[in-house]
Amino acid sequence: MRLSIIIPAYNEENRIGNSLKLILRYLSKQDYNFEIIVVDDGSSDRTIEKVKEIDSSGKIKILKNEINKGKGYSIKKGMLEAMGEYQLFSDADLSTPIEELEKFWKYLNEGYDIVIGSRALKDSILEVRQPFYREFMGRAFNFIVRFILGFKIKDTQCGFKIFKKEVAKHIFSIQKIKGWSFDVEILYIASKLDYKIKEVPVRWINSPSSKVNPLKDALRMFFDVSRLKREYRDLKPEK
Q1: Number of domains comprising the chain
Q2: What is the pLDDT of residues 121-158, one digit of tens each?
Q3: Which residues contact 137 (CB under 8 A, 6 or more apart)?
Q4: Quick one: 205 exposed, middle or buried, by C-beta within 10 A (0-12, 13-18, 19+)?
Q5: Domain span at 77
C-alpha cells in the first residue's frame, strides 16, 4: 500500500460526496495502491450514508466516533489505522485540491519526512480567499506560534499534510490535543524529534462552511499552543 488518505468528517453530507469523487478520479489515474479512510466524528447527518454511496471501489474505510471528539482526535485515529507507506490527511472540503499532492513527492524522494501545504508562501495561490477577519486571525495565530515555539513554518493550519509511515506512527502516538490546534502540536513534536519538514506552496480555495468558531476556538488554540513547550520539554530524538 503506497498511499493512505485520511479525511476527518463532521456533518459533511453536503461536501464529502463530491470530494471523494474527485479523490477517486485522481487516484484511479495513478499506478500505485491506495486506501481512503474517512473518520466520521459523531456526525448527526447523512455523512456516512453519502460515503457509502460513493464507495463502489471498496477503497474507502469508515471509522466512526460515537460522539464528536474533535478534528485532532479523528485524524490521529485515522493515521494510526492507516497502512500506506505515505499517509496524507486532507480536509473534507478539499480546500487544497488533491492534485496538489503531485508537488509533494519530489521532497519526500529528497529525504523529507513530512511535507505540508502552505497558503502563506510566495508562490501559494489563493483562488478564493477567506473573509478578511479570518485571514487576519490566521496570520496572528501563526505569528504567535512562531514567537512562542520558535517555528520557521509560516502556515501550520493548512489541512493538507503528508508523512512517511513510520514518522506518522511515531508522532501521532504521542499527540494529545483533540481539537483544531493539533496541527501545531504534531509539527512541534516533529521538530523536537528532528524530523525533516518541508513547507510547500499550494493552490487553495476557501470553503464558506468552515466549522471554526472565530472567538471560542481561537482562545482554545492559544491556550493549547502556550502549553506545548512545557508539555514536551523533555522530548528528544531517539538515539
Answers
A1: 1
A2: 999 999 876 666 566 667 777 788 888 898 889 999 99
A3: 214, 218
A4: middle
A5: 3-231
